[in-house]
Amino acid sequence: MAAGGSAIRGSRVGAGPMGEQDHGYHADRIAISYWDALGNETVKYFAANLPDEEIPDVIDSPSSGLPAGRDRNNPPEVTKLEPYKTHLAYVKERRTEEEAEQLLDDALRQLRERRGTSA
């Protein structure tokens, strides 16, 4: 005869005296709707005793990945991504030789000051 375990026949393993109310499933909650730019509604639940300043005004919509706000008529706008820059565009943005020398001189001066005070 096999023996082992302390579970009573027919009982669920892990079942105990704790019910759903002990897990917090029946805590007082408030539902807040968020809308994204595509019109998708997302409902989030927060504890009823949570202060208004701790409830976020903008979240990320799980259905679209866009920002979603609490105002249905004026949802947050879709962020515009900058197009990919070519190497030539970066070359055009480079600093002049005089600016580069000035930056290098400032950086070297700051390093020398730090070494002089800590050494």
UniProtKB/TrEMBL annotation:
Gene3D superfamilies to which the protein is assigned, alphabetical: RNA polymerase-binding protein A (2.20.28.270)
Please give the residue ranges the record annotates as the region Disordered: 1-21, 54-85
Keyword Hydrolase recorded: no
Query: Which HAMAP family has this protein been placed in?
Result: RbpA
Description of how the protein assembles with itself and partners:
Forms a complex with the RNAP catalytic core and with free principal sigma factors.
Q: Which UniProt keywords apply?
A: Transcription, Transcription regulation
Task: Note whether Transcription regulation occurs among the keywords.
Answer: yes
Q: What is one Pfam family matched by this protein? A: RbpA
* Alphabetical list of InterPro entries matching this protein: RbpA_sf, RNApol-bd_RbpA
BP-aspect Gene Ontology terms: positive regulation of DNA-templated transcription
Which family, according to the similarity comment?
Belongs to the RNA polymerase-binding protein RbpA family.
Q: Under what name is this protein listed?
A: RNA polymerase-binding protein RbpA
Q: Function, please?
A: Binds to RNA polymerase (RNAP), stimulating transcription from principal, but not alternative sigma factor promoters.
The molecular function terms of the Gene Ontology recorded here are:
bacterial-type RNA polymerase core enzyme binding
Q: Where is the composition biased (Basic and acidic residues)?
A: 69-85
